[in-house]
Amino acid sequence: MNNLLDITEKLVNISAIICTIGISISLLLLLIRVMVGPSNADRAVALDGIGINLMGIAALLSVIIVTTKLNDVVLLIGILLFIGTLAIAKYLEKGVIIDRDVD
Amino acid sequence: MFKPNDLILRTTTSLIAFILLGFAVYLLLAGHNSPGGGFVGGLMTASAIVLMNMAYGMETVNKILPINYRTLIPIGLLIAVATGIGSFVFDVPFLSHTFGHFTLPIFGEVELATAMLFDLGVYVTVLGVTMTIILTIANDQEDGLEGNEIGEDSDS
Questions:
Q1: pTM, whole model, 2 decimals?
Q2: A9 touches chain B (CB under 8 A)
Q3: CA distance linking residue B65 with residue A87, whole number of Å
Q4: Where are the transmembrane segments (chain B) (predicted)?
Q5: Is residue B51 part of a domain?
Q6: Which has fewest Cβ within 10 Å: A11, A70, B43, B52?
Q7: Distance from B123 to chain A by nearest Cα, in Å?
Q8: Domain boundaries, chain A
Q9: Which domain holds residue B131?
Q10: Which residues of chain A from 73 to 92 reach within 8 Å of chain B, CB to CB?
Q11: Tell me: the pLDDT tens digits for A39-84?
Q12: CA angle at residue B11 from B10 to B14, to 5 degrees?
């Protein structure tokens, strides 16, 4: 029984490390898209993807170093990502982020 | 000037702003023995109000939240200083904090610390400062020339 627990723990650790490597490759590819993206909208979407990958890395890190204190960080990154993407989209469309008076 | 259709943004905002405010209160209250505290809580509240500003415009949000954010800064500083001065009443040095166990009707036995009141002062001050900065910068389009130029550029 104890042996099974050890194997499971090792399996979780190994898969978390493999997932971290995969997300790192994805982050590098997204970084290339941010640098060479022809239009500004391409860069905005790539930044959105980078933020989502960062959420994944934070969650995997809380699996590797065994802690639950990083759950707030994952939620925080998601919220800030949403607001930032919204601000970029609004700037690209209208030119102002906070307008004084809508309709 | 074309008129955009913001229906999805507005519906999502009215839902997400509540989640953000709840998360801010959670961060403020959980700061004693897990990550969080007054600073992050104030920033989360400010981001919820900024989200409402982005979706509904400044005038509408001023109508439903008639707060002058500049007055929040001295209020927060006063709360923080008052918790420090309050320790003189009990004949202990400045800013010494204490805690005690109380039995509340619903929550049962909880540990209440006076450091929470100091955190509340930090929360109010951070909220006031952040909203003052953001809304002052956003108000800076009064001459109409620069704002219109940027708007026309993005249309082409």
A1: 0.83
A2: no
A3: 21
A4: 7-29, 35-55, 67-90, 120-138
A5: yes
A6: A11
A7: 17
A8: 2-94
A9: 7-146
A10: 73, 75-76, 79-80, 82-83, 86-87, 90-92
A11: 989 999 999 999 999 999 999 999 999 988 899 999 999 999 999 9
A12: 85
